[in-house]
Structure formats: C-alpha cells, structure tokens
Amino acid sequence: MTLTYNDFYYTNLIVAKDNSSAIMFDYNLLGKNYACSDIRNVLYSLSPKARKAFLLEYGDFSQKEAIIDDVISVVVTLYLALQRENFPSWAKPVLNSVKTDFICKVQRMLTECKC
C-alpha cells in the first residue's frame, strides 16, 4: 500500500518546458491504494511511446500486485459504473472483458498469486 493519485488523467499533469520535471494536481481522490492501480490508470491514457517512457522511469513493481489488480480493477470499475443512473460508456469495455477474458484473469490470479 502507498499513497496513490487514483484518478490519473494527463490533463492533470504539468510538464516543464524542457521536459525535466512534472507535477500532478487535482488531488480529490488521493488516498491509500496499491501502486499498480495508479500505474494502470496512467498507462491507460498514454501513447505507446509515452507508456514505455513512463515504465522505464517508474522502475520495478510487483508483478503479483499487477495480476491481482487486473481482477480487482474490473470489479471496482463495474461497482462504480453501477452506482450511476445510466451505465457510463467508459465502463463498457470492462463489461465486455467480463464476457471474454475475466475468468482467465481470475484463474491466473489464483494460480500465480498463492499466499
């Protein structure tokens, strides 16, 4: 567990003109979570080149945590989506993943992340 941003979106990021540094703002969902949840949120909105650069700079992280996040993020996303009056478009790809590969993700988690 660590302090995480929880709702990363690139418009909440200010980058120095010389690309030497960056700072996040809009901390309304700042809280305690697993690092992989923030990594997933960041990677979602980046181009392939930017993803590669981000991961290179970020460094190592727990692969077990990433496998668990792959399952938990589906559950949390659908829970949040179902709280709304109308099912949001941003949750439709996750709903489709339940129909296609969610069982495989759960099986992977159970196989590779034994406590």
Question: How would you sum up this structure, described in words?
Answer:
It is a single chain. The chain is mainly alpha-helical. The chain is built from five helices and four strands, in the order E-E-E-E-H-H-H-H-H. The chain has a two-stranded antiparallel ribbon. It has a two-stranded antiparallel sheet with strand order 2-3. Helix 3 packs antiparallel against helix 5. It is globular, with a radius of gyration of 16 Å. It starts with a strand and ends with a helix. The relative contact order is 0.12.
Describe how the helices and strands are arranged.
Layout lengths: L1 E3 L8 E3 L6 E3 L6 E3 L1 H10 L3 H11 L4 H20 L9 H9 L1 H11 L3
Antiparallel strand pairs: 1-4, 2-3
Helix pairs in contact: 3-5
Brief account:
It is built from 5 helices and 4 strands.
List the keywords.
115 residues, 4 strands, 5 helices
- Please work out how many helical segments DSSP would assign: 5
Please count the beta strands (DSSP E, at least 2 residues each): 4
Terminal Cα span: 17 Å
Helix content: 40-55%
